[in-house]
Specification:
Structural class: alpha+beta
Oligomer: single chain
Strand content: 15-25%
Radius of gyration: 15 Å
Number of helices: 3
Shape: globular
Number of strands: 5
Number of domains: 1
Strand order of the largest sheet: 1-5-2
């Protein structure tokens, strides 16, 4: 049983012998399709995403089912290390997106998510940013957070992302 207060007031039984898979995104969705396409591109054709790695090497963006390289949940307020990593993730995304043009109503999306230890602030170049529809970006963030809560994804839990 866990009792993670940041996932709601009730604890829950968890099964720790499987790596969960987040499946809330679909490229055909009007709710989060633009973000889903971004995640899918980052997972399947990472070298086509922005920014390129500064050393010119190939990107290896984690989190795809079957990759063997899961993402790791980062609870941004857990401790000083988590606060610092989350801040580094957000700062790197903000500075990288500043180099891209975008249309009114678009927001900068990042993958891996800022709520993971593998986010842009890891500074290994294995991330992607893209401007997407702002409403869909907000919806995708809500969907991710709701999945964290519903599936009891705790700080430092591993997980994969599958895009339909």
């Amino acid at each position: 049983m866990d009792s993670a207060s940041y996932l709601g007031s009730n604890g829950a039984g968890i099964f720790d012998r499987v790596v969960p898979i987040m499946q809330e995104y679909s490229v055909t969705s009007t709710r989060n399709g633009a973000v889903a396409q971004h995640v899918k591109d980052a997972q399947t054709i990472p070298n086509s995403t922005y920014p390129p790695k500064s050393d010119g090497s190939a990107k290896t963006i984690p989190g795809a089912v079957g990759s063997g390289v899961p993402l790791t949940r980062l609870m941004s307020t857990w401790d000083a290390a988590a606060i610092a990593q989350y801040s580094a993730n957000r700062n790197k995304v903000t500075s990288t997106c500043a180099n891209l043009s975008h249309n009114t109503g678009e927001e900068c999306d990042e993958y891996p998510f800022a709520s993971t230890w593998e986010g842009a602030g890891k500074n290994d170049g294995n991330f992607s940013v893209r401007y997407v529809d702002g409403t869909q970006n907000g919806n995708a963030g809500t969907d991710l957070n709701n999945w964290y809560i519903a599936d009891r994804i705790l700080h430092k839990d591993k997980f994969y992302v599958y895009v339909n």
